[in-house]
Amino acid sequence: MKRFLTAPVLAGVTALALAACGTGSTGSADASGGDKPLAEASVDTNGALAGKKILYVDGVPGNALLDGLAQGLAAELNKQGATMARVFQLNAQNQIDLAAGNQRINEGIAQGVDAIVTFPLDANAIRPGVEAANEAGIPIFTFQDLGGLDVTGKLKFPDEQRGDDTGKALAEIAGGQGEATVLSGIPTDNIEAAVRGAVKGLEDGGMKLVGDPDNQRNLKDDAPEAQRVAQTIFQKFPDLKALVVYNSASATGAIAAARQAGLADKVVIGTMAGEDTNIAQVEDGTLALSYDFNGLDYGKAMAGLVERALSGEQLHNEVVEAPLGEVYTKDNVADYKPWTERQTYIKIPSGF
């Protein structure tokens, strides 16, 4: 499938957007950096991008991963001398609206911004805005390598590799033998790629794959549904030794299902997209592994792409790989730092 997110029913778009983000990694559901107050932005007026205005058309507010991307992007752009405003794809009723992405882009064009970065909720829906930016001669960038969008540059998420890293690491914890499977989610491009990687990693690690991830999906993107799906998996495969899940909430649900089935000491569980809650689960031994995206670095990588274009480099559909994250297990979990401790979160304005 070529589209990153498809929303046949508008009410389901929010859940899809959160699934696409893996539900975050900071453990904070807002942009405030948890209990820490937001700092004022510090823009280097002597930087290479001094005076430049960058508009970030984000997905939805209140998502930890999206906050991390925005914070990493803003910090790096400010360091280069640019100012950044962050707006969302919401309508006047504060509800998610696929058409709002185009409206935000056109508002940026009217304001004369120097570049636009987007987190598309739907590739087809945002295409008119992308085309408008191209006609206006304004560089436009997307998080995710989306097919069918003609943009200046794209930041590609290493989904298949993070799945592979998770699968191999979990197979090693499981002893490199026995049955294993993957609990998948909503069939977005990035989740599908991560699941492919996890299957490969488990097999390369010596595990015998059972079940079918296509039929083992947490389509509600929450812990209760993950618990239900995991219960079915454990009933079908009572000898299962390893289970990879696609996100944080699914890890919590799978842990509950394993406990209910009396398998907590027999099956190891790992998540391909963890957050602070999962780190606590690794610490207490209920979760074997948590993969940390580090969305801050994703945002910084996007800022580097923007800086290249605004410094005169001619880019067209330039694809840059986002940096890999890190696998945390009981052996290195003490080294984990929440994103809000890795970088000071700042106030990001909604206008210039």
List keywords for this structure.
single chain; 352 residues; alpha/beta; 2 domains; six-stranded parallel β-sheet; disordered N terminus
Task: List the topology elements.
Layout: H1 13-20, E1 53-58, H2 64-79, E2 83-88, H3 100-111, E3 115-118, H4 123-135, E4 140-143, E5 153-156, H5 159-173, E6 179-185, H6 189-204, E7 208-209, E8 217-218, H7 223-236, E9 240-245, H8 248-260, E10 268-271, H9 276-284, E11 289-292, H10 295-310, E12 318-321, E13 326-328, H11 339-342
Parallel strand pairs: 1-2, 1-3, 3-4, 4-5, 5-12, 6-7, 6-8, 6-9, 9-10, 10-11
Antiparallel strand pairs: 11-13
Helix pairs in contact: 2-10, 3-4, 5-6, 7-8
CATH architecture of the largest domain: 3-Layer(aba) Sandwich
> Quick one: how many beta strands?
13
Mean pLDDT: 90
Unreliable spans: 1-20, 22-30
Tell me, what is the CATH class of the largest domain?
Answer: Alpha Beta
| Proportion of residues in helical segments | 25-40%
What is the CATH superfamily classification of the largest domain?
A: Response regulator
Distance between the termini: 37 Å
* Overall number of domains: 2
Secondary structure class reads: alpha/beta
Compute the number of helices: 11
At the third CATH level, what is the topology name of the largest domain? Rossmann fold
Task: Identify the overall geometry.
Answer: elongated
Order of helical and strand elements = HEHEHEHEEHEHEEHEHEHEHEEH
InterPro entries: Peripla_BP_I, SBP_2_dom
Signal peptide: 1-19
GO molecular function, one term: carbohydrate binding
Pfam family, one: Peripla_BP_4
